[in-house]
């Protein structure tokens, strides 16, 4: 279903993604991180829907549809290294740092900082070219929002 999209994404020298494709790729990355601990639960799916709705100005129904498409894309996407490197080449830094904050929000949605999710998020941050400092600041913003 997403073969053409994925081939464009992982092609040498990919072009910047149109907004709709960037939304899909970045939401698929949220799904990948949420699934990394083997427990992709309703809280994580709801968090992804809220993130998509807020970030992209979508209705709840459209956010759920985007997540469904992202789940299908994530299932077909290549390994995390190739997938995130492709996103890095196609999405600007500002959007990538916003995605790291969203990823932390998903990771912390269940109130548990799982070692597998934590490890994958460190890898994803690095592969997206987001510094450890920016990733830590993103995590702190998410935690501060949860404590407020």
TrEMBL record:
Entries under InterPro entries matching the protein: DjlA_N, TerB-like
Ranges for domain Co-chaperone DjlA N-terminal: 23-140
Family annotation (Pfam families): TerB (PF05099)
Recorded superkingdom: Bacteria
Protein name: Co-chaperone DjlA N-terminal domain-containing protein
Taxonomic source organism: Roseivivax isoporae LMG 25204
